[in-house]
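Dear support,

I submitted the protein below through the web form. The confirmation email said the job was done, but the results page showed an empty box. After a refresh the structure appeared. I'm attaching both so you can tell me whether what I see now is the final result or a partial one.
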Amino acid sequence: MTFSRLYFNRGILFQNFRQHGWLGILFLIVLLFSLPLSIGTEYREVPYEITSLFQTNGQMHLLLALAFPVAIGLFLFRYMQSGASSDVYHSLPLKRKHLLTAHLFTGFMLILIPIWLTTAITGWVWGVLDEPAYIFTGDAIWMWGFSMSIYSVFMFMLTVAVGMCIGQSILQGLTVYALILLPMVFWGGYELHLQQHLLGFPFEQVGAVRTDISLITRMESIGSGTILWPELVIYAVLTVVFIALSYVIYARRKVESATEAVTFRVVKPIFRFGFMFTIVLIGGAYFTRIAPRESPDWGIIGYVVGAIVGYIGAEMLIRKTWLIWNGKLLPQMALYGIVVGLVLYVPVADWNGYAARVPAKEEVVQVKLGGDERVYHNGIMVKADDSKLYSNNPEFIDAILALHHKIVDSDLDLLGNLNYTQWDDSEFIFVNYELANGKVMKRRYQIPQSEFAQELSVLREMKDYKAVQYKTYKLDEDVLSIGIRSYLSGARKTYISNPQHIREFLDLLKQDILDQTYEEQTAPWESWANAQINQESDLDPNFPRTSWNFEIKSSYDRVLTWLKQQELYDQLNVSVDDIVSAQFVKQEFDGVGNGRSIYADSEYIDANLGEHKQVATQNKEIISDLLARQRTGFYTKEAVTVYQIKLNTVSGENIYMMLKEEDLTEAMQAILVDL
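What the results page shows now:
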């Protein structure tokens, strides 16, 4: 009797449900429309098999879990943020813990009843449908209800806990969503800072999961059904923590703190620093992204501007006025600025040894060259098993360590600018060392090939490098079929389905790839053809097939000989007799700006054939040379002259290619002298 009267006071409960029950009803209606009604009315000729109900309309479901619980928290605890209602409620003959319990119980009912009614109705719809648009199990239904309950109750309790420290409802709501976005903003902004100022920081590998650390950014991936048990456990634990904090903080909150921006003095410096540091990261990221070429210091300007704006903004919010000037403002701003500066500086300082560290050979157990590979598994993006990509070959380890030593000892500015490619011959190096202490040391660099040609040539000649770089381990797996298409002509293709022929082709292709020289790997010419190998996959039930692409270069003698023996070569090869004529149009780039990528451009040549001077030829020698080599697209910041080329075939198909001026043969130069 006493427990019911004190902790679940009927008057408080009736008042809450009468005043705010419409939020629960609206929540239920929207949930019903977004899930059971959507599933029951959608029609598909071929039902879609799903592993999670979030695959039906997941972004909408998560949006509801982010919106309604926050609104319920704001409305239920609005009495704490208004002076008059705060006095009334706290004058009741109820202890604060009893008052809080009644409001929390109301909030849980307004959230959980709609979710589990929707879950039950969804189960009924699933059971009575004769021709469902989606195929799923009963586990998917209750898992949806459980997940939505965790997400929603977490958002509700976060709103309540924030409300204990904030005295204004609008600021309370804004703070809730700011906290939800804060991990993403902090991770993204700080990662950009480290990328710009810390040599070797492996930002692409570290940042691969940054979209999974905030419920707002999780909306992008929730549609694939990515429900993770560790994630749910974390949110459940945080919910319990917020419940406990709410009781502790509410017992100490002063009634007169209603309408104040921050209700506790101890929270004010935390609020100032958090707000200021967030704006600093945003300012630094923004100025870094808009920085002109060769102006990396713009990021520092962004940090300074962000610090000033952040501190002033925090003071305005705390004091609820723009009249914040006093004698303590500048010293306090400087103090907070120093703390923020230390947080930014210490991780990138030279004396911490991160940038200069290269492990000793005896520390290295094995090494992998290349970034992490991520694949979809049952709709979830996960890190693929990379154990087969590591090598303990002493020579391979020596070659990587030699390259690593030269990188850290180099006088070149290898940090560069994020807004443009630093060198025309840039190469990205990812190194993963598995050390004797069980840790993995990761580094990422962007280097010019010309400055590290000796080390790269030694490394690229090794089969350990080529096996990972060209994924030859995929050629050892079972393959259903192989499709080969000419790079010159999309109409020229062939198909291999005989199991014996498939295995012969894959074995020869692997040998040719592993036997490539450094010169063959770095040659600027397009490949002769592309081979697509098709495999069975058990990673996702909706995608039982997967495919991988491998280049067939003109230097792959084993593969080309085999194709000729199987009478497949002529189906792929474009010969001189297939070409009627070749047309050349000169294209010049002035090199002004941040650089550009240049490629064979069909629109440019077709648009300019009637406007600019062009040369056409039927010379078989020239055409043969063109078929033998066509330049790949390339990046340059320098002035360059290229020739866009159009080959007219007997069949009427147009083939487009490109050559640099230095690629021209003497015969080509002779006919192009007047262009």
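Response: this is the final, complete result; the empty box was a page-load delay. The two ends are 100 Å apart (CA to CA).
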